[in-house]
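Not sure how to ask, but would you mind making up any protein sequence you like and the C-alpha cells describing how it folds?
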Amino acid sequence: MKAIDFNAFGDADVLSLVDAPDPVPRATDLLVKVHAAGVNRADLLLRTGHYGRPDFGDSRLIGLEMAGEVVATGEDVKGFKVGDRVMGITGGGAYAELARIDYRMAMPVPESLDYVHAAAIPEVFVTAHEALIHLGRLQASDSVLIHAAAGGVGSAAVQLARATGARIFATTEAHKAGRVHDLGADVVIDYKNEDFAEIIEKATDGAGVNVIVDFIGAPYFARDIQSLAYGGRLVQVGLLAGGKEATIDLERMLYRHLQILGTVMKSREQPVKHGMVARFRDAWLGRFASGDLVPVIDSVFPLSDAAGAHRRMETNESVGKIILTN
C-alpha cells in the first residue's frame, strides 16, 4: 500500500509517500480502506520528535483518525462487517491506503455524511465530549469558556455546548470570530486584544463561568482560575503554550470549591479509550445524521501532499479540520 512516512524528524518536508506493508488485522481489528484521514496537532509533534518513533498500538506510521470502508475483520469483531462505512481513532497508521483499527474505537458513518466529513469527527468530537460533558459535567443552565474555539476540538466543543444549551464564551483571533459565532458562541473574545477574564467578570457580574476548556496552558491558567464560578471546573486538554510556569491561587481554589482536571486521549490505556468513544457515540452520533452537529472542514489535501496539510496547520490560520484524501 501507499502510506506517508519519514526517515528523520524535522519540518513538513520530511514527509513522503512510500510503499509500506499492508497492515494485518488482529482478532479485534477492522481492516479499513482509508478514504479520508484527519490531521491533528499530535501528528506534528510526532513528526518533530516529541514522542520519538513509538508504535501507538496499531502502527508506527503517522495518523490518528480516519474514515473508510471495512475490507476485512478479525475473528473477535462484533457489530461490523465487510463493506461497512466506518470512522474512528487509530493508534497510528491513518495516513495510508489501508489502516487497522480496534473495532471498539470505530463508529458507523452516518448516512448523510461523506468520508471527508466523517474523518473530521472522531478525534475532535470524542475529545470535546470527554472534556466538556464527561469531565466538565456541563449542563444546560451552565456557562462555559472554550479557548482556541476555531480549532478542531474547540469548534467541536462549541457545537456540543450549543447543543447542550449552555451560554458560551469563546476565545479566538478577531478574523475568525464570525465563524465561531456561527458555530454557536454567544460571546466571542479576541484573545490578542481583549482580556477574557475581564470580559467574563463583567458579563457575569463577577460570578464567573461553570466550566472552562483550555488548550493553551500556563499563560491562561491564573486567569482561568479567576474566571471560574463557585464549584467551577477547569478541564485542561492541551498545553500549546507550555505548562511549567503556571501559578495558582490556592485560597481561591479551596474556598470556591474549584476542580482542575486534565485529559489526554493518546496516552490512556485502551479500555479507557473504548469508554471515551462509546460515551460520545451513544450521546451524539445521531445528531450528525439529523444535521444538528456538523463537522467543520478547513481544507482538503491529497495524501501525497501531507506536507502541505501540515504546513497549513502550522500557520494557525485554519478553522476546523484539515483532511487528507485517497
Observations:
- The mean pLDDT is 95.
- The chain has ten helices and 15 strands.
